[in-house]
Amino acid sequence: MKINRTLTKRHLLFVTAAVLLYASFFTLSYIFNQHRLEENEITDVARLMPTKVKRVTSGEEEQTFVDLVKEANEQDIKLSVAGKRHSQGGHTYYRDGIVLDMNSYNKILKVDPENKTIHVQSGATWDDIQKAVNPYGLAVKVMQSQNIFTIGGSLSVNVHGRDIRHGSLIETVNWFRLLKPDGEIIKVSRTENSEYFPLVIGGYGLFGVILDVELQLTEDELYEIRTTKLNYDEYESFFAEKVKGDENVKMHLARITTAPDKFLTEMYITDYVDASSNESLEDYNELKGDEGTWITKPMLGLSRDFDWGKTLLWNLQKKYFSNQDGELVTRNNVMRSESAFLEYENGKDSDVLQEYFVPVNEFDEYIDDLRAFLKDEELNLINITIRYVEKNEDAVLSYSKDDMFAFVLLLNHGLSEEDVAKAEKTIQGMIDITLQHDGSYYLPYYSYPTKSQMTTAYPKTEEFFKMKRLLDPEERFMNEFYEEYGR
Ligand SMILES: Cc1cc2nc3c(=O)[nH]c(=O)nc-3n(C[C@H](O)[C@H](O)[C@H](O)COP(=O)(O)OP(=O)(O)OC[C@H]3O[C@@H](n4cnc5c(N)ncnc54)[C@H](O)[C@@H]3O)c2cc1C
Prior knowledge:
Radius of gyration: 22 Å
CATH topology of the domain at 222-457: Alpha-Beta Plaits
Number of strands: 19
Largest sheet: 8 strands, antiparallel
Strand content: 15-25%
Bound molecules: flavin-adenine dinucleotide
Distance between the termini: 55 Å
Number of helices: 14
């Protein structure tokens, strides 16, 4: 078939024309379909749950947040905490409540190169941290692939990323200071006020405001990119031998196609192999920014709107990533993946995320079951990336009960009630399959899952919400996620 051929000039011309044409439609559609929020209405980046709040307050000083908690207690107002609002299920707001916007509370307080730690305020982003530590030859141990998120938001969902030698973010947190619902500020670590540690990390802002955090760092390193194309049934053994089994492989990301002709069969893998001894880090450690948005954004748009667009994007991605084979990249730059191309705004539909965790040894059977199920569903699945996350049950709401593959699904659905209900049914079906394979799902996304799916995926759900009510008896900290699953 055509799609397996190397790209020719004619293909490139066609692609460029298609991209330009699509970009024009995209811009017009953006202008005509934009959803405008009403006064005091707030929503998360995916725009799934516009909600009226009393107000949004930000602050650069700790005292602002202390005063707000006092005011909320005196006047019985609910509080929510927000970072960049990339969570998608109303985790950062509650109807008629006050939202504490942490984004301007973002100072880097101290970099300690000797002990390899950083102390930061919770509104700082990973980008802020990378800029602060890169000059010392240091890097973050665990974070998302993109660096746009706040530290408070990342701790509160207990994120994970491409590093295969460290598990979830909780592993790398030394301590943090917490502004509790009663207005007291405490230091929390594995030994001090330790009951808060596994609740607040992965606690979705329900136990108070994380003010500042000390995180462990590691050496920035130079990696050689190694790419491999394979069929899904080869992946499990490839991962065991060539990735986990090779101590030089430090980071890993896999992709499996959603293009109709090879749906959930063809994969390609990007591994980051230690190359520190071959070349000097300083020659490569300039921090990179978003470079290819002009092409990646319309390409993603084509695959959102057309099946042939999915095939085209998959083939171009394969080509692009295999061209990277042998390139050298620093650890910090691996964790500065492009993000602007993911920004999508249209009043009629939205790009939403799902993430499912499945034990490593279930991979083949899981993919077979998912493929069979999705064959009869009308789900617009744009792409899937796969990460590895090591078993870690430190957080009460831990998603990695085992060594897991994490499937990140980007999909698009309409915003009408009917469209959301349709997507919800399919997503609940995918979650059922995930649970049948002893898996779990990630909690920062929209409330498609049922309560019973949550308790199956998270056996300590009851304990978590019981502790919430014990440590915050007035339910001062509220969000729509807690309203849906915890009350
Ligand atoms: C494009 C994209 C890629 C992603 N990739 C990954 C990935 O690779 N790995 C991964 O694990 N996740 C990933 N995610 C999920 C992402 O990590 C979470 O949604 C994360 O919470 C986003 O950070 P934020 O600053 O937007 O947090 P927000 O959405 O603003 O907040 C998230 C939660 O944290 C709470 N919170 C925020 N700040 C504080 C604070 N200071 N004190 C107490 N509570 C607080 C909020 O109340 C809320 O419950 C991705 C999401 C997107 C949209």
